[in-house]
Amino acid sequence: MPRVTFVDSAPMVLKETNINKMHTPSEGMLHINPKDFVNFNSKNAEATMTIKSIATSAVTYKIQTTSPEKFRVRPRCGIIQPNQEATINIWLKSEHKLSDDSKDKFLVMAMVAPGGECGGADVTELWRSKSPTSADVEQHRLVCRFDENKSKAQLDCASKSSKASVDCSKKSGAGVDPATAMERQLAFTQNLQYVTLALLFLLFAGFGFLMYQQLGQHAATCPKATAYSCAKRK
């Protein structure tokens, strides 16, 4: 089974003046994901990078940064067999922050591993004696930034919510001045009062009609008093 070898050694320091020249446009040995940026999570200041070997033989890689005092990188170098990949974890130290002008960069370098395989000490020594600008070294330059996709999504969501609120307000109050709105409100209140009075009148009228019917029925059922006359005296 193909083997992936990781080596933990100190990162070599890059300078802003020369990193811009260190970039190989085509991918011949490594495929980097993400390709152009090291995207740090805004919550925990962590980033993850995946490097995959697309070469036909073992490849050794080395990671450099322009600001080694700001970052912790694990692993910093190693060997990847064909069609294998390695996950690189990067942390921004709590006492530091990313530069606003995108000056914090990483450089991933790759070259064919001599003999196909070698140990950790051999990898460290190999890169120590290797010039980053050698013709057989593939270079991938990445710029550090906070995850813009998440931030952009949050901003878009907030913008859409704000726009929806503004549109709703415009629709509800479009073309209506305060005086007209007040008049409409007063007219509605008056109409509501008229309707309430009409309902009360109908209620009392119905109650009076029922009382009248009850009294009529009571009078009809009571027996009439019989009149008696005194007998005439002879």
Automatic annotation (TrEMBL):
<dbReference type="InterPro" id="IPR053012">
    <property type="entry name" value="ER-organelle_contact"/>
</dbReference>
<keyword id="KW-0472">Membrane</keyword>
<dbReference type="InterPro" id="IPR013783">
    <property type="entry name" value="Ig-like_fold"/>
</dbReference>
<dbReference type="GO" id="GO:0012505">
    <property type="term" value="C:endomembrane system"/>
</dbReference>
<keyword id="KW-0812">Transmembrane</keyword>
<feature type="transmembrane region" description="Helical">
    <location>
        <begin position="192"/>
        <end position="212"/>
    </location>
</feature>
<keyword id="KW-1133">Transmembrane helix</keyword>
<feature type="domain" description="MSP">
    <location>
        <begin position="29"/>
        <end position="145"/>
    </location>
</feature>
<dbReference type="Pfam" id="PF00635">
    <property type="entry name" value="Motile_Sperm"/>
</dbReference>
<dbReference type="InterPro" id="IPR000535">
    <property type="entry name" value="MSP_dom"/>
</dbReference>
<dbReference type="InterPro" id="IPR008962">
    <property type="entry name" value="PapD-like_sf"/>
</dbReference>
<protein>
    <submittedName>
        <fullName>LP10490p</fullName>
    </submittedName>
</protein>
